[in-house]
Amino acid sequence: MSETLRTADVAASDADLLDRTVTAVREAGSALRERFGEVVGYRSREELMRALAVNDDTALDILRPSLTRLRPDAGWVEDELDGGALPPGEWWVVDPAEGNVNHLHALPEWAVTATLVRENQPVLTVVHLPLTGETYTALAGGGAHLDGRPLHVSPTADLGLGIVATSQARPDEDEAVVRRVGSSITAMLFDALVVRTAVPATLHLVNVAAGRIDAFWQFAGARADLLPGALLVTEAGGRISDAEGRPWTPQSGSFLAAAPGVHAGAVATLSR
């Protein structure tokens, strides 16, 4: 079989896999939606962690068997705070309740995500927002879509006219990272039109892919936060790098996703 035919076969297989991944992620999202609506109280870190785990387990009880059937030999990553490179092969990188704390507080900004990573490159991703019913998908080389409609990043070419966003990388972050986040927000307040700060990262990144936000940056970060959005933004025509403009990998200490017209300006601002 020629290399061209082998490549076409893999692409067709991945496209079918993406469709079936959508089904599993939407089913998990429906289960979480049924749990949504009332603020979940907690009085200690331990109680908070137990409440978060209940949501995670609700979605994972659906996602793990469904995705394992689709790719029985793929590894499994569900710790949304993990970072760095993965071992060789295929891996499911899953965030069963992206924005879990928001869900507990009856805030609408949360999602379910699943990304297939092959040799440390994301090849397909699904981000489902159960409260709106929106499903964002991306396939390496096949574009990014919202419910089947192609996505394109913003044409904005002036950071001063742009909406930018960042999020908290993780709880209990290193003090140096926290201070860098604060100084970067201050810098962007001078250079951008509007600065948004909120969690989770994935929801900012789907907005970059959809052209609603012009740039998103984050220091530190984790695979499950960034891989889905990285593929969506890339396939929608955006640029991915670290905050200094160098190629981004899961080992990088920073992350920047931007429309091409504002990428250089964002790098300049974040590098000050």
Automatic annotation (TrEMBL):
Coiled coil: none annotated. GO terms for molecular function: inositol monophosphate 1-phosphatase activity; metal ion binding. Keywords: Magnesium, Metal-binding. Mg(2+) binds at D95, D225. Its cofactor is Mg(2+). It comes from the Bacteria. Gene3D superfamilies: 3.40.190.80, Fructose-1,6-Bisphosphatase, subunit A, domain 1. One of its GO terms (biological process) is inositol metabolic process. InterPro entries: Inositol_monophosphatase-like. Signal peptide: none annotated. This is 3'(2'),5'-bisphosphate nucleotidase CysQ. It comes from Streptomyces apricus.
